[in-house]
Write a structure and sequence with these properties.
Number of strands: 10
Radius of gyration: 34 Å
Structural class: mainly alpha
Mean pLDDT: 87
Oligomer: single chain
Largest sheet: 5 strands, parallel
Strand content: under 5%
Distance between the termini: 33 Å
Number of helices: 41
Helix content: 55-70%
C-alpha cells in the first residue's frame, strides 16, 4: 500500500528525491482519477516550474514506474494526463469512514478506529512546496474530522467515561470548537459528572461571548438544556421528512466537503446548494447521504419533497401544493393555511425564519419551481437537485452550484463490491472490468447492473457483460421507469427543444471522444453563436459537459442513447468531414510547407474550416483534434469512403510521425493502404505502402517492412514514378536498423541518382542520406562532402528540418574524425531546431544519443550521462526498448 499519511513511502521501495516523491503524492491524492500534466506541474513546482519542467516530469514518471514495477501500485498514461492505480492509505481511510457513517455504532467505532490507525504522523512528511503544505493542512483537518466521528460513535455506545481525558485535552486545544465542547459535555455526563459538564458549558459560553461576541450555537444550547433536564438524549418534536439513508454510499469526498464548506462559510443568509447533473448521476444519493450525516446540524428538523421535475408520466409538482405539505409538517392547522400561493410562501418563511432547518428539494424542473419554497431568515440550509443547471437560483439567490460528475474507477469498483460482495467480484475480474468500463462511473447504471446480478443469481457477471455488449442501454430497461436507464434518458430528451434534440443526436455520431465549437458548428450547420447557444442549453440539461480545454463531450451511456435518437443526415456527415479535412490540410502545410499537398475539392456548404495563422496554432489544433481525426479515419474506413481515408492519413502523416505513436501510425497506414487499392491514382497506392513500410520499420518488423517497401518500389518502377526514390530512402533506413550499413548506402546512392534526375527539391535529403550512411561505413570524407553540399541546398531552400538533420549528420562525422567540440555544438544546434519544429521525441532521441559520444570522448562524464539519460527516457516513451537498453548499457559502462 502506498502511504501518504506520514512519510510518503511504498514499503521498501526507493521512491527517489523529494520532488519525485511529491509527484507520486500528487497522483496518489487523486488515485483512480486522471490528473492532467499541468496540474502535476503546479503541484510539484508551483509557480516555479523549470524551463524543461515537462521533460523532467516525464523523467520522474519513468523512474517511478520502474521503481513501482511488479508491485500493487502502478502509474498509467491516459488521455489528458496520468493515473495512479492501487491501494493508498488515504483512500483506504476514507473508504473506512464512509462505511462507518452508515453502520451501527459498534461497527462504526471499529471502522473509524481502523481508519485512524492508518495516520502514522504528519501527512506528506518530507515534502516541501506550497501544494504539499496546503494539502498537509487539509489532511490534518480531515484527520480531526475522523477523530470526531470516532468519538461520536463511542459516545453513542456510552463510552463517555473512557473518553473524558482524551476530550479534556481536545477541548483545551480547541477551546472555541463547539463540536468538541458538545462531545466533552456528553462524555462528562456519561461519566456521572453532569455538574462538571454544566460548568464547562458556562466556561465555553463565556469564552465565545468574550472572543467572538456570540452565544453558543443551537445544538450546544439544546444539549445544555437537556443536561439541565437530566435527559441529554431527548429531542424536540420537529419534522423529520428525509427518506431512508441511501446505501451503499461510496466516494464523493470532495462534493461532501463542498457542501460542508457552503454551510460553514454562510454569512447571515440562507445557504442554498444546487446540485446539478445528468439523470442517474447520483444527485439524490449524495444529497440524502449528506443530509443524514449532518442531521445534527439541523435540530429544528428536515423537510423533503420530490418535485417530480423529470419523473415519467408525472407533471412537476406545483409549489403551492408543496408549501401546503410543508406547513402541515410544521404543525399549522389546515384551516389556517392560506389559499393564495404567495400567502402560503410568506407564512412558511415566517415560521422557519429563526429555525435551523434543512429543506431538501429533490428533482427540480426549473428555478421557478424552487424560488417559492425558499425559507426566509438566515438559519436554514436548502439543498436542491436538478438535471438542469438552475442559473436563476445561482445568479439571483446566491446558490452554490455543484456539478456532479461520474464516480472514479476505485469508487465504482467499491460500489459493486458493496452490492455484490467481494467474493463475487473477485471471482470474475475480467467481467467486472468490462462492466466498469461499460458504466464509466455512472451510479445508476452500476446500481441497475448490481440489481440485475442480485435478482438473477444464476446469471454470471460474464453473461451480464455479454448481454450489455449485445443490447447496449436497452439491457437496463425495466417496467419501472424509476429503475430503467432508457426511461431516465427519455425523460431528459423530452425536455429538449426540437433543435436541441437534433444537435444532441448529431453530437452522438460525431467522430472522436469530444468536439470543439468550430467542428460542432460545421456538424450542426449553424453559426458559431447559434451553436454555442444550443451547446449551452445541452450543458444546462446535464447532457453535455465542457472540459477545461473548452471542448464538449458526453458520458458514454448518454452518447449511446443519443445515437438512437439521431436522424440520418448525410449532409451533416459531409460538413464535419470537410471541416476536419480542410483544416487538417492547412495545419499540415503550416507544420511542413515543403510537403506534398493532398488534393481536396471545395468544402461542403455549411462547413467552415478553422483558420490557423501559423505553425504554432496548427500544432495546437492537431494536438486537440488528434483523437477526432483518428476516429474519422476509422469511421471512413468502416463506411468504405476510401478517398477520405487516404486524405486523412496523408494530412496526418507528419504530425503522427512527430508524436512518436508508432502503433497508431501502423494502424493508420494499414487502413490507408487498404483503401488505396480502391483509388484510381497509383501514386497514392505507392505512397500508402511506403508509409506502411516505414511504420513496420519503426516497430522493428523488418520482414513485413521489406515486403511492403519492395512492393511499393516495384509499383513505382513499373509506372515510372519518382516515388521509387522514397522507396530507396526507406529501404536504406530499414537496412541501417538491421545493421547492414553497406546495403543501406547502396539504396541511398540509388535514391540520390533518382533525385538528381527527377526532383531537385529532394536532392538535399538524398545527399544527407548518402553522407550519413557513408559515415556509418567509415568513409568520413565522402560523408562530409555530401552533407556539406546537402546543407547548402537546405539553407538555400529555407528547409529547417533538412538543416537540423544534416547538422546532426555533420556532428556525427566531426566526432569520428576527432573534432569533438564541433560535434557537440552541431548536435546541440540540431536538438534546438528539432524541438522548435515540434519534434519532442522522435528524431531528437537519436541526436541526444549522438551528443553523448563526443562528451564521453572528452572525458565529460556528467554531460555524457545527461545526454544518454535523456535519450534513454525518450526511447522508453517511444517504446523503443532495444535502443533504451543500449543507452542503459552505455550509462553503466560510463559509471
Amino acid at each position: 500500500m502506498l502511504r501518504l499519511l506520514g512519510e510518503v513511502s511504498a514499503g521498501e521501495t526507493d521512491l527517489g528525491p523529494p520532488r519525485q516523491r511529491c509527484l507520486l503524492a500528487a497522483l496518489a491524492v487523486d488515485a483512480g482519477l486522471v490528473v492532467p500534466v499541468d496540474r502535476l506541474l503546479d503541484r510539484v513546482w508551483g509557480d516555479g516550474v523549470p524551463r524543461r519542467g515537462r521533460e523532467t516530469l516525464h523523467s520522474y514518471l519513468s523512474r517511478l514506474r520502474q521503481a513501482l514495477a511488479g508491485g500493487e501500485v502502478g502509474i498509467a498514461h491516459r488521455a489528458g494526463g496520468y493515473v495512479l492505480t492501487g491501494p493508498v492509505d488515504l483512500h483506504r481511510s476514507r473508504e473506512l469512514c464512509t462505511a462507518g457513517r452508515t453502520e451501527s455504532p459498534t461497527e462504526a467505532a471499529r471502522l473509524f478506529a481502523e481508519a485512524l490507525e492508518l495516520w502514522r504522523g504528519e501527512p506528506l512528511a518530507g515534502l516541501s512546496g506550497e501544494w504539499a503544505a496546503e494539502e498537509r493542512d487539509r489532511l490534518a483537518q480531515e484527520r480531526l474530522a475522523v477523530l470526531h466521528d470516532h468519538v461520536d460513535a463511542r459516545l453513542r455506545l456510552g463510552h463517555g467515561a473512557q473518553l473524558v481525558a482524551e476530550l479534556a485535552a481536545l477541548a483545551a486545544e480547541h477551546p472555541l470548537d463547539e463540536r468538541v465542547a458538545g462531545q466533552y459535555l456528553m462524555a462528562l455526563h456519561q461519566a456521572g459528572r453532569t455538574a462538571d459538564a454544566l460548568e464547562h458549558y458556562r466556561l465555553v459560553r463565556e469564552r465565545l461571548v468574550a472572543e467572538l461576541g456570540a452565544d453558543p450555537g443551537a445544538a450546544l444550547q439544546d444539549l445544555h438544556t437537556q443536561l439541565l433536564a437530566g435527559a441529554p438524549e431527548a429531542s424536540r418534536s420537529v419534522p423529520r421528512q428525509l427518506p431512508g439513508t441511501p446505501t451503499p454510499f461510496v466516494g464523493r469526498r470532495a462534493e461532501l466537503d463542498r457542501l460542508d464548506a457552503a454551510v460553514a462559510e454562510s454569512t447571515g443568509t440562507v445557504v442554498i446548494s444546487a446540485i446539478a447533473g445528468a439523470g442517474g448521476i447520483g444527485k439524490t444519493w449524495l444529497a440524502l447521504h449528506w443530509a443524514h450525516e449532518r442531521a445534527d446540524r439541523f435540530p429544528d428538523g428536515q423537510l423533503f419533497v420530490d418535485l417530480l421535475g423529470f419523473t415519467p408520466d408525472n407533471a412537476p409538482l406545483d409549489p403551492a401544493a408543496v408549501l401546503r405539505g410543508f406547513l402541515d409538517a410544521l404543525g399549522v392547522d389546515a384551516d389556517q393555511i392560506p389559499a393564495e400561493p404567495h400567502a402560503r410562501a410568506a407564512l412558511f418563511r415566517s415560521l422557519v425564519v429563526d429555525r435551523r432547518m434543512l429543506v431538501l428539494l429533490d428533482n427540480a424542473a426549473t428555478a421557478d419551481q424552487v424560488v417559492p419554497l425558499l425559507p426566509g431568515g438566515h438559519a436554514c440550509t436548502v439543498l436542491v437537485t436538478s438535471r438542469r443547471v438552475l442559473s436563476t437560483l445561482i445568479a439571483r439567490h446566491g446558490a452554490d452550484h455543484l456539478d456532479l460528475a461520474v464516480l472514479g474507477e476505485v469508487e465504482s469498483r467499491t460500489l459493486l463490491e458493496h452490492r455484490l460482495g467481494a467474493a463475487r467480484v473477485t471471482a470474475e475480474p475480467d467481467a467486472v472490468t468490462a462492466l466498469l468500463d461499460w458504466c464509466r462511473g455512472f451510479p445508476l447504471a452500476l446500481g441497475l447492473l448490481a440489481g440485475r446480478a442480485l435478482t438473477n443469481p444464476g446469471l454470471s457477471l460474464t453473461g451480464l457483460a455479454a448481454e450489455l455488449r449485445e443490447s447496449g442501454v436497452d439491457a437496463l430497461d425495466d417496467d419501472d421507469p424509476l429503475a430503467s436507464l432508457p426511461a431516465v434518458m427519455v425523460s431528459s430528451h423530452r425536455a429538449l427543444s426540437e433543435e436541441q434534440q437534433r444537435v444532441f443526436g448529431l453530437l452522438a455520431i460525431a467522430p472522436g471522444p469530444d468536439i470543439g465549437l468550430p467542428a460542432a458548428a460545421s456538424l450542426a450547420g449553424l453559426t458559431p453563436a447559434a451553436t454555442t447557444r444550443v451547446l449551452r442549453d445541452l450543458q444546462l440539461a446535464s447532457l453535455l459537459f465542457q472540459d477545461s480545454r473548452g471542448r464538449y463531450a458526453m458520458h458514454d451511456l448518454i452518447r449511446a442513447y443519443a445515437a438512437t435518437t439521431a436522424v440520418h443526415d448525410e449532409t451533416a456527415a459531409l460538413r464535419v468531414t470537410d471541416f476536419y479535412l480542410h483544416t487538417a490540410r492547412t495545419a499540415a502545410c503550416l507544420v511542413d510547407p515543403h510537403q506534398t499537398r493532398v488534393e481536396l475539392g471545395p468544402p461542403a456548404a455549411g462547413a467552415s474550416p478553422a483558420e490557423l495563422p501559423d505553425s504554432a496554432a496548427a500544432v495546437a489544433w492537431l494536438d486537440s483534434e488528434y483523437a477526432c481525426l483518428q476516429a474519422l479515419l476509422r469511421q471512413a474506413a468502416a463506411g468504405r469512403r476510401h478517398e477520405v481515408v487516404w486524405q486523412i492519413a496523408w494530412t496526418q502523416r507528419i504530425y503522427v510521425h512527430r508524436r512518436g505513436t508508432y502503433q497508431e501510425d501502423l494502424e493508420m497506414w494499414r487502413l490507408a493502404a487498404e483503401s488505396s487499392r480502391h483509388l484510381p491514382d497509383v501514386r497514392n497506392r505507392v505512397r500508402a505502402h511506403l508509409r506502411l513500410g516505414r511504420a513496420h520499420v519503426r516497430l522493428d518488423q523488418f520482414d513485413e517492412a521489406a515486403d511492403t517497401l519492395h512492393r511499393a518500389l516495384a509499383q513505382a518502377q513499373e509506372h515510372g514514378l519518382v516515388t521509387q526514390m522514397n522507396a530507396h530512402f526507406d529501404l536504406a533506413w530499414m537496412w541501417e536498423r538491421r545493421g547492414d550499413e553497406h546495403r543501406a548506402l547502396d539504396h541511398a546512392r540509388q535514391a540520390l541518382t533518382i533525385a538528381r534526375d527527377h526532383d531537385e527539391n529532394l536532392v538535399g535529403e538524398a545527399l544527407n542520406l548518402v553522407g550519413w550512411h557513408a559515415a556509418r561505413t567509415g568513409d568520413y570524407d565522402m560523408a562530409r562532402s555530401h552533407c556539406e553540399e546537402a546543407l547548402e541546398i537546405h539553407r538555400a531552400n529555407d528547409y529547417p528540418l533538412g538543416i537540423a538533420t544534416t547538422v546532426d549528420s555533420l556532428g556525427y562525422v566531426d566526432h569520428f574524425t576527432g573534432r569533438h567540440r564541433e560535434a557537440i555544438a552541431r548536435h546541440r544546434q540540431s536538438i534546438t531546431m528539432l524541438r522548435e519544429l515540434g519534434y519532442h521525441a522522435e528524431v531528437v532521441a537519436d541526436v541526444f544519443e549522438h551528443l553523448g559520444r563526443p562528451h564521453a570522448a572528452l572525458g565529460e562524464r556528467k554531460q555524457a550521462h545527461a545526454a544518454w539519460t535523456e535519450a534513454r527516457e525518450l526511447y522508453l516513451r517511444l517504446d523503443r526498448t532495444a535502443d533504451a537498453d543500449r543507452m542503459r548499457e552505455l550509462l553503466e559502462h560510463l559509471g
